[in-house]
Amino acid sequence: MNTTSTLGFKHFLFLWFGAAVSVPEILAGGLLAPLGLASGATAILAGHLIGTTLLALVGLIGFQERVPAIESTRISFGAYGARLFALLNVLQLIGWTTIMILSAARSVNEITKILFQIDNTTIWSVTIGALILLWVALGRESGWKKLNMAAVWLLFGLTVVLSWAVLRNPVVAQQPAAGMLSFTEAIELSIAMPLSWLPLAADYTRFARSGKGAAWGSFIGYFTGSCWMYLIGLGVAVKTGNADPAAVMLAANLGLAALGIVILATITTTFMDAYSAGVSIATLCPGLNEKHMAMAVTVLGAALALIIDMEQYISFLLAIGSVFAPLFAILLTDYFILKNRRIRPELQANWSALAVWCVGIALYYQFLDLKLALGATIPVIIVTAFIYTIVGRFANTWTYCKQQPKPSQP
């Protein structure tokens, strides 16, 4: 495995800011509109502070051990556990690739209907998929790093313009809360987005030059970008009742700049989904080329975007939280509290860790039903970590290890 240390603080800052700038993040922020601007913004900042801290910690493991995120789960769960999580991660990332392409195609279609009288979501799904495929093909080459930085700077400028167009109206801040969303649910929807990136973080930090640069670059880049997108979505939805930014960008006479924001943001974010899906597939099937698998995921995502809808977006976000919150609570507890930091090649399955993970998933949905003030993710992480701190000390009696060959007699 190539573990050349080529990425520094600024690379992670740009990488994760670019990943956060996307239409689905804006749409997710719009889901918080029933709370109003003030309460919605509080939920966004609180949820992202928690979720992005976890993102930075998981990335730090990748830097220290020089392994991808899914491979690092072998520390706690063994080889079979890592394969299970690789499969779940591939499914999640195919889902995200599909959602990214579909949401962007719909927004672009709304823009081109007005600008050019072109009304065909299918064409835009295929076109955006092809552009992402080209970005994936460039891979991690040195030219790609410069291109990605240039893209993020352009996105930053376009996002400033979009923010001004959306939030300059003081009426937005005065809109009362309306709807049925609770503050607890709002925090969960804010945490869910950074949680979805946990299985990807170490795929990039394993190439970092320093742990501090990887952790802080990832944290600042994603926290800033994602909170910004959520706030834009919240402002758009409070102002217009619809979180899709396309209409607001057109109303602000952004024209071609609107197309640039949507398409470029989708490319930089979906690249990370597809690339990490390729890494997870390579974990499942050693010997397969990561880049080729990432390209295959891009093609599949574009194809699925032609036939699915986005009605289950909230359920998808909550399902991500239910799976990955207890999973990484166990890994972080094992690594930072119990000091288990070595991948044991002979460990096939840690049944105690897998059992605690299943308990954590069940507890997540129970906590959602209880509508606790802290939401579901924080209690699940605390309870799961507490249980595993106790159970993990006796984990060796609940593991399955392959038999090691006996040394030959002289």
UniProtKB/TrEMBL annotation:
Q: Which GO terms describe its molecular function?
A: cytosine transmembrane transporter activity
Look up the record and report any one GO term of the cellular component aspect: plasma membrane
Note the CDD domains from the entry: SLC-NCS1sbd_CobB-like (cd11484)
- Which Gene3D superfamilies does this chain map to? Hydantoin permease
The cellular location(s) given in this protein's UniProt record come to:
Membrane
Alphabetically ordered keywords of this record: Membrane, Transmembrane, Transmembrane helix
Give me the segments passing through the membrane. Answer: 12-37, 43-63, 84-102, 122-138, 150-167, 214-238, 250-271, 314-337, 349-367, 373-395
| Bilayer topology annotation | Multi-pass membrane protein
Q: Which domain of life does the protein's organism represent?
A: Bacteria
Under the heading InterPro entries, the entry gives: CodB (IPR030191), Pur-cyt_permease (IPR001248), Thia_CytX (IPR012732)
For this chain, the family text in UniProt reads:
Belongs to the purine-cytosine permease (2.A.39) family.
Give the protein name, as stated in the record.
Answer: Hydrogenase expression protein
Organism field: Anaerosporomusa subterranea
